[in-house]
């Protein structure tokens, strides 16, 4: 990784952290005001189409970006192609929104048949307000990808900050007065503002909306052909999320909200650690594949996974060791009571098991997409979805709501293994002996990290931090997190992990050089 890329990645990482902190502050305030009540269930059910659209937009990027990279230097072609894509999804959205408006009650019954009458009535109102976000989040993702292609990573990442600030301000000042309907309206307005900001940012790169739509041009046809398998895999994945909500709605009041809170907590790890890595590397992977430099594709994939695992492995240990404490500290206030904490923390623990597998799968799937191969990831996603749905039905009967979290994590692990096997078949040299040795060292370091945390929790002085006030709990969690990363890095250095040693030497040398120049 070059020094420029490292600095860009660091700034992007910091912006992402700020964004995720603001995003979770929003979740904390929603939890404080509505807890795991029927109103919270209604809000998250109404947000389901938006969450599904966000998931689809991430997979859509796998098709859009490689094609856009091919003619990004030709402004007219890139503008026409982008407008064709946006027009296509806008037309689909108009049809879908019309159907939702006409058949709203049936739509809510489909998403969450176990809702109470009060929650169902509120969900009907909220989904009519929030459904336009389905198109907006897709447009936001397309504009973000365009900015990333032009190496304007920081502007695109920072565009979400006003979004979160507006929602936080509403929840802080007006939630009592205007209620959950006001939250929905504010959410819609904040996303519209983000889209406007991105539009003016991309205009700086000579983008403009062209009037003529060439929906059946050769580029558009290629896009649609590549999109077809993505639509299938995304549909299966989204169906899995819908099934989870259907099953959760039949468990107890507030189960859907608890599932959403736990999912968003896991999103801190995936958003802060995984998203910046993919944002930086995927455009480069697409360029390398376009130039048929497959050896460098493998090298970049290895480096991305190594960096990602260093971030994710100690964090997974912390999440699994302190799931209840984390949820209690962050969310338990106002309407979010001890019962809500118990429910949410159980799901969060189960979700945490699959965090590393999510990172591995997301990076390796990008290697397939960079080759223009969308069929293989489609088969992988479908198989993972089928496993998730089957396990959800089985585990929810025996384990309750925690079974939904476990089924999701097990599905991620299985699809990560399948992805590794299929990528090996596509590129025989991708998993070298050196890379496997690195993975073994990382696994040993993670095990040592987990053992250190477990033993330290047995010491009364450190364990008692969590039974005192919130301040000491935060201090305790911070100390444990620092210890986890310190132990993990120290063990890698003891095992003489070359890439880490070289990286630290370069970092220290660079710091000394800056100090001398200063």
From TrEMBL:
Membrane topology summary: Multi-pass membrane protein
Protein's UniProt keywords contain Ubl conjugation: no
CDD domains: MATE_MurJ_like
Record flagged with keyword Methyltransferase: no
Keywords tagged on the record: Cell membrane, Cell shape, Cell wall biogenesis/degradation, Membrane, Peptidoglycan synthesis, Transmembrane, Transmembrane helix, Transport
Highest taxon of source: Bacteria
Positions of transmembrane segments: 43-69, 81-103, 123-146, 153-173, 179-202, 223-243, 263-283, 304-326, 346-364, 376-395, 401-423, 444-468, 474-495
Localisation: Cell membrane
Function: Involved in peptidoglycan biosynthesis. Transports lipid-linked peptidoglycan precursors from the inner to the outer leaflet of the cytoplasmic membrane.
Membership in a protein family: Belongs to the MurJ/MviN family.
Annotated protein name in UniProt: Lipid II flippase
Taxonomic lineage: Bacteria, Bacillati, Bacillota, Bacilli, Bacillales
